[in-house]
Amino acid sequence: MRNKFADVFYELGKADPRLCIVVADISPAGSIAKFRQDFPERFINTGVAEQIMIGMTAGMAQRGLRPFAYTIATFSLYRPFEMVRDDLCYQNLPVTVVGIGGGVTYSTLGATHHAQEDVSIACSIPNLSVVAPCDPSEAAAATRWCAAQEKGPVYLRLGKAGEPDFTAKAPEPWEFGRIRMIKPGSDVCILSYGPIMKRAFAVADRFEAAGKSVAIASAHTLKPLDRERIEQILAGFKHVVVIEECAPNGSLSMRVQQIAWTSRAHCRLDTFTLQDEFKHCYGSHDDLLDEHGLAVGAICAQLGLT
Question: Which residue ranges does the record assign to the Transketolase-like pyrimidine-binding domain (predicted)?
């Protein structure tokens, strides 16, 4: 997903001289390194100075540029939080803040690099749109939208590397602000976003082995949330499942539960999130998800699938 973002950004940057990128103490790789080489005047590395990274992009946007702030998710959102809120969101500037490795992707680097509550925090800031693609194809579509939009600031939450492509042949196109079906079905609907979509598909396989027809929906835009489509899903399926790599408070799961209550939905609703705690577990991304109770087997056990 990270490499796809870089490839698309480079191609867009060749055509649009307003596009520029400001990073904070990360080594550019792939097409971002090529962007630095070909357009050095549009690439800035602030070093360990994330607050300056955000403040700089605000000024660049006011001068008519279309800047992207790009670094690991905890350092693109948490460390410069005041600047994201006041410099970008208060002034409603068209800056894209790219958070690489959302959730617990940077597993072995510990809690300082775990952005398990990033979606919750970002969704609470006025004017800030939040987009979290589930695979390289959605990352490409989201990057193109971010580069062209003039709506205001965006938090673009990306995975890191190695994500399968689930949506290249999806029956519905990617559209900002719209939940889309990426797999048709009639009995159960699974809502998910981000790299954990891989586990949503694994759970769907277990449902189908039990004779159920399973739809999967990508909730790639967390803010503004597509409430109308969620209401349709809650009304149209007997069983709805939400699987996400986010802390429970302020999560998609919490908002779907609220919508289910206010719309008087009658379906069964199960939600699965990261737990509200720091996990003292050293291991891979999969190990951390398992430790948070998001192992496919653990999810299936709670759903009554053996």
Answer: 1-165
Angstrom distance (rounded) from CA 177 to CA 55: 27
Question: SS3 breakdown of the chain: % helix, strand, coil, rounded to 5?
Answer: 40, 20, 40
Does pTM top 0.70 for this prediction?
yes
Q: Are residues 94 and 196 in the same domain?
A: no
Question: Interior CA angle at 210 toward 197 and 171, to 5°?
Answer: 45
3-class DSSP state of 74: helix
Do the domain assignments include residue 171?
no
Please write the tens of the pLDDT for every residue from 250-282: 999 999 999 999 999 999 999 999 999 999 999
Domain interval for residue 7:
2-158
- Residues 11, 150, single domain; the answer is yes
- Same domain for 20 and 76, yes or no, is yes
The reply to whether 202 and 111 lie within a common domain is: no
CA distance 140 to 199: 21
Ordered DSSP codes for 169-228: T-SS--BTTB-EEEE--SSEEEEE-STTHHHHHHHHHHHHHTT--EEEEE--EEES--HH
Query: What does the pLDDT read at residue 169?
Result: 86
Q: What is the CATH number of the domain that holds 237?
A: 3.40.50.920
Domain count, the chain: 2
- 170's CB contacts (< 8 A; 6+ apart) are 137, 180, 181, 182, 183, 218
8 Å CB contact between 268 and 239 = yes
Residues 6+ apart with CB under 8 A from 270: 239, 240, 241, 242, 302, 303
Rounded CA-CA distance 261/243 in Å is 19
